[in-house]
Specification:
single chain, alpha+beta, 5 helices, 36% helix, 26% strand, globular
């Protein structure tokens, strides 16, 4: 089977951003890495997004969704579908909050399998880029996400701890 040719497209609206997210989610086969400010944009609590994420998780018990956020308050208050996925598939869905040293990072990214991504240039703007089937171009963002992930800690868990 031949690899698909690399594809790149810029976008400038939130609706185009959400469509780009869907394309990358549909292309994902093994891993998803998401960095966002707080998930208030992007339709992360929509039934469609929940279905795409659940389909990804159920594809294999080895699949993982790593989410790093500057703030988890929005997720806790307004994303019951995502929290439900985390409760159902706690082995696969990890939600971290960035530590102070990473708070200056402001360009959201979604990476799938180290070869597809959506990259917004700043979380306050809709402008960004969708890239599919390009592991060389994606590699720099994988490294960036790894740095963000290492500068974050577990913030939302599937179970409530305490007495």
């Amino acid at each position: 089977m031949m690899d698909a040719a690399p594809f790149s497209q810029h976008f400038a609206s939130l609706s185009a951003y959400q469509q780009a997210l869907d394309q990358v989610l549909e292309a994902a086969r093994h891993s998803l890495q998401l960095f966002e400010y707080d998930l208030h944009e992007g339709g992360w609590n929509s039934p469609q997004r929940e279905a795409l994420l659940k389909q990804f998780i159920l594809r294999s018990t080895d699949n993982r969704l790593h989410i790093a956020l500057h703030s988890v308050d929005f997720v806790r208050r307004h994303c019951p579908r995502l929290l439900n996925l985390q409760r159902q598939y706690s082995y696969a869905v990890l939600i971290h909050e960035t530590n102070p040293e990473a708070r200056s990072i402001n360009d959201p990214i979604l990476i799938a399998d180290g070869q597809h991504y959506v990259h917004r240039f700043h979380y306050e703007q809709a402008r960004g880029e969708l890239v599919l089937h390009d592991p060389d171009q994606t590699h720099r963002l994988v490294l960036r996400f790894d740095e963000i992930w290492h500068a974050s800690s577990v913030a939302v868990t599937a179970t409530t701890l305490g007495l």
